[in-house]
């Protein structure tokens, strides 16, 4: 008879925990969480809370038709900065507020179905408000001073109820002189235009709507133009390109040998109506026989607030657009 030697291997029995063959002794006790870990955890929670609050606010404002007011463009970055500073209490409040705003802007396109133009144009405003409010809240929390709170409240209320401290109507104008007769320029204005890429650096850098073709001719009252623009590409998840166009009708015309004036009135607009209320394009010209001075004016209504930011931005961009249209119709008559 053969007898086994050595200690027998215990078998798992009822009421016993199974033996883990990979476990090497008792696990080491977890080190207590230090100040750095607690600060990082609090910062992450503050950032997530700020972004969640900003997304809820954006959806609520869009649902109530307030997405073009200061309540959106000043209130949301201010909400991000306040949430981060008060919940996370970071050592560098401005940097954290700007970083959180960057993440929010990156998420805004796919989640809110915004286009690139809106994000690019609004980004400086978002960053500026987040930095100023973040620093102000940080200083106020340390000094127990909320003197800036009424000012922020006044800024975010602009546009609510169509309130604005400055007029919304504006006119942007561009002027040029060409070596052509008034008759030659009038013929160019009456013909269908050929659109080329804009020369202005800002119009090339920011993907503003670009005209790609036009139908219609003539300068008599009632003549129309149908201008086709490049399709709108939003950043929404699964979004399809959206066709865009603008129909204009000649509502005033005075064409003479020495000059003239023509007014095109916008009757349909699926291109710029989201950004501004473009109303008329007025062209005037007069010459001395060898050269002709032409002026192109775009009359529009500002639909975005705050006025101290979007007013100058829209006026500058519309002035560049006037110059672009003027170049489009005068280039064919230049020597």
Can you put this structure into words, describing what you see?
Helix 1 crosses helix 4. The termini are far apart. The mean pLDDT is 81. It is built from 9 helices and 7 strands, in the order ααααααβααββββββα. It has a 7-stranded antiparallel beta sheet, covered by helices on one side. With 335 residues, it is α+β, with helices and mostly antiparallel strands. 42% of the residues lie in helices and 22% in strands. Strand 4 (242-256) and strand 5 (259-269) form a beta hairpin.
Q: In a nutshell, what does this entry contain?
A:
This protein is α+β, with helices and mostly antiparallel strands and 335 residues long.
Topology (SSEs and partners):
Layout lengths: L34 H29 L6 H4 L1 H14 L4 H20 L3 H28 L5 H8 L12 E10 L3 H9 L10 H5 L5 E5 L8 E9 L9 E15 L2 E11 L6 E12 L4 E11 L4 H24 L5
Helix pairs in contact: 1-3, 1-4, 3-4, 3-5, 4-5
